[in-house]
Amino acid sequence: MSNEMKRLIAPRSWPVKRKTAHWIAKPSPGAHALEGSIPVTVVLRDMLQVCTTAAEVRAVIFEKGILVDGKVVNNHKQGIGLMDVVSLPKAGTAYRMVLDRRGKLQLAKIPAEKAAWKLCRIENKTIVSGGKVQLNMHDGRNVLVEKDSYKTGDVLKIEVPSQKVLEHYSLDKGALTLITSGSHVGETAVVDEYVITRLASENLVKFKDGTSTVKNNVFVIGTKTPEIELPEEAAI
């Protein structure tokens, strides 16, 4: 499998210029799907523009100059996806990967104190030895909890890199959500009803503005106000 891809066929979620060069870095296999992640090289060079070449990106990594979710990055092709926190300690800046209304992954600048946590959606749950519950999150991480008090689709505010659970946001009526796919991608909406179907079709989430979408397109980001910064055009 190639480690590079043509810029023209790069995922539509990447906010990069298509005709400046022939090739672009391809993210290494990891927690996020190809469509939903951008490699470190592209983030530093094309999005943040703190580097001008891939060689400069590798130099930054060699000097331990970039962290993702509180951990030092060692691979210049590591994929960075939705809600991941990118920190540049030497520059004193931090960013969170979010979505805009065009469905593009964007980096929203955040204050230093907010770089210590991230939001993670529970994709599924597993019972492990000892009777503990393992929560499997959207970013590939697994969190062990003593009590099964969470539902799939709920979102946890997790301290990184320790994975301590700080807050819990349920996918219930009144929850503030970010739409992650579909015709309303990048918009925020308040849940009016969560409809659980008994058929093979996916559960539906209905919003107070009259729209609806499937559960997998919904990411809870708070209650009355968003816990995260969003691109200006997507904020409420």
CATH class of the largest domain: Alpha Beta
- Class based on secondary structure composition and strand pairing: mainly beta
Quaternary structure annotation: single chain
CATH fold-level assignment of the largest domain = Structural Genomics Hypothetical 15.5 Kd Protein In mrcA-pckA Intergenic Region, Chain A
Q: How does CATH name the architecture of the largest domain?
A: Roll
Lay out the secondary structure.
Layout: E1 4-6, E2 23-25, E3 37-39, H1 40-47, H2 54-62, E4 67-68, E5 71-72, E6 79-81, E7 85-88, E8 93-99, E9 105-110, E10 117-127, E11 133-137, E12 142-145, E13 155-159, E14 165-169, E15 176-179, E16 188-195, E17 204-207, E18 212-214, E19 218-222
Antiparallel strand pairs: 1-2, 3-6, 4-5, 4-7, 7-8, 8-9, 10-11, 10-13, 11-12, 13-14, 15-16, 15-19, 16-17, 17-18
Description:
This protein is mostly beta strands. It folds into three domains: 4-110, Roll (Structural Genomics Hypothetical 15.5 Kd Protein In mrcA-pckA Intergenic Region, Chain A); 116-169, Ribosomal protein S4, central domain (OB fold (Dihydrolipoamide Acetyltransferase, E2P), Beta Barrel); 176-222, SH3 type barrels, CATH 2.30.30. It has two helices and 19 strands. The strands form five sheets. A five-stranded antiparallel sheet has the order 5-4-7-8-9, with no helix packed on it. A five-stranded antiparallel sheet has the order 12-11-10-13-14, with no helix packed on it. The protein has a five-stranded antiparallel sheet with strand order 18-17-16-15-19, with no helix packed on it. A hairpin with a 5-residue loop joins strand 10 (117-127) and strand 11 (133-137).
